Amino acid sequence: MSNFLSFVYASAPQWLYDILLTVLCVMAVWTFSRRKQIHTKLRKLLGVVYVEYLILLICATVIFRDSTCALGVEFVPFWNYTNSYFTEDVLLETLLNIVMFIPVGFCTSVFLKRSVLVKVFFISMLLSCSIEVTQYLLERGFCETNDVMNNTAGGVIGYLIYKVTPVFLDAFKQKRYAYYGQGAIA
Question: How far is CA 139 from CA 66, 96, 132, 135, in A?
Answer without folding.
Answer: 9, 21, 10, 6
